[in-house]
Amino acid sequence: MKGTAEESRDELMSALSGGAFFRCEADGGRLLGDSQALADCLGLPVQVLQDQLGAILGREAPEVYREAFDPGSDTSTSFSLPYLHPQLGRRWLSLRRSPTAEGEGCLVFLRDETVLHESMVKLSSAQSRDVENSARLQAAVLMEGARHAIPSLDYQTTTIPSKLVDGDFLDVLRLSGSSVDFLLGDVMGKGMGAAILGAMIKFSFARALSSSLFGVDALPEPSAICHAADNAVAGRLLERHSFATLTYARYDEEALSLRFVDCGHTSIIHHSARTGECWRIKGGNMPMGFMEGQAYRDFLLPVEVGDSLLLYTDGLSECCNRWDEALGEERVAYLLRTYSGLPASELAGMILRIGFAYSAAGFNDDVSLIVIKVKAEAEAAREAEAKARVHEGFLAVELESERYAGFDAADEALGRDLDSWIPDLGLGPRSEILLALHEALTNILEHGLAGGRGACELRWRWHAGLLSIEYSYTGQDYDWASRPVSPLARFADSGYGRLIMERATDSLLVSQGFHDRKRLVMCRAVPGRRDQSP
To answer: Which alpha helices (DSSP H) does 109-190 contain, by range?
Structure first.
């Protein structure tokens, strides 16, 4: 009676679950009792199954069947078994076992999951085709950038695809004889959809360039190019609830500078050959697709011969080790500083190899990077000419809040060089530059140094019509980029500093270094008679 009751209960459970519950020996060799549901599922008489259960179910995949009934295997695991049905042909069965309360043999649940299996195979095939097609699109369109021979520049573009295709895109454009433009971006999401959006954004930049270059003598600024591209794609990105982070940067060979727009992308890392320091540089725009009609803003970074620049996607900085710790931008900066002596191609390869070795299971996101190294020009005559046209000054001052020590020395030194380098500068622009110098030192003293005292290194340079002033110091974080309501609107006694600096310069850029190092760079276009090319 006990056996009959158990068999009735198994038949009821089988009917309710759409599968077959049955009892068998611990090794799955023989069926214990009767199970009509099992016989119906397999298309065989119960009498055949009682003595030949293991041979029948394990015929197509004996290793899998033995593992399913291994005493050491996890009873919560379902095993997929191929089975040749007498009438239906090849089927796929899901099998899961558990011990019985009585301790005799085991209870097994078996269900025909052929439809589910075939659906998964079709889905996997479709995903594989999607990855393959996306990879072809990525290789042919997104990552294709022409190689240009630039005497004063050594650069390398590199991409390592992830296990899935993502939306990284890059381009290199030679728009004039003295400059080269770099575009690097990353679309949110993965697969063919992200790849198509990346291609759309890259095409929008190409179309923006072709439109803006028609019938003009001067190159449009990166901000104008980004604005034109944004007009074409921002609405479509918003419709698809997607966005793209990107950096559009222009290296100016004559001015020795990098003019760039940063749309929420990873930091540009700048290694200074003169000081040996690395700086993480950010711009001020949101990702493309966050809003329509975004106002794009250029930032300027002066560079020198021997400097290195790294643009990269977050697949590098966000790759994690076995403890789920991201590589991070600071480690990436250390890599650039450590291997900055290598040529651009070797430097790019070294960074990628170390990043891959750091990650626990390879890169889970595309990794794309652009390495730029400023080198001396090939012709000695042009090197001598360039050197003669670069005017530089340096001063280390000790700032102190009580007497505002160091301000007069900085004012005198910069003013003397301005008078010598650009005698036709004019009183108005000269006063604006010196006033911006005072306001920068005041902000460093009161906010960066918390009103105490500390050292500040000043470097200024005038070259090819561009005046730059750099302030390097060690201090606490301070949000230079925040721009409160103009104090003029409320007739305040203070708070004019950042407003004055913004009005007196074309670019105000703050970057982070190692160990609380900070750098403020102010740039202003200041043409002069001495700055005319022969």
So the answer is: 114-137
In this structure, are residues 233 and 200 in contact, taking their beta carbons and an 8 Å threshold?
A: yes
Query: pLDDT tens digits for 478-523?
Result: 776 665 545 545 555 556 777 888 889 999 999 999 989 999 999 9
Q: How far is CA 315 from CA 165, 188, 311, 323, 333, in A?
A: 12, 12, 12, 17, 15
109, 96 Cβ separation under 8 angstroms = yes
pTM: 0.71
Rounded to whole angstroms, how far apart are CA atoms 434 and 412? 9
- The 8 Å CB, 24+ separation contacts for 346-354 are 347/156, 347/308, 347/371, 347/373, 348/156, 348/157, 348/158, 349/158, 351/310, 351/316, 352/158, 352/160, 352/316
Report d(CA 25, CA 239) in Å as an integer: 60
Here the contacts of 323-328 (C-beta below 8 Å, separation 24 or greater) are 327/355, 327/358, 327/359
Other Cβ atoms less than 10 A from the Cβ of 252: the count is 19
Sheet holding 166-176, edge to edge: 166-176, 179-190, 244-252, 257-263, 299-302
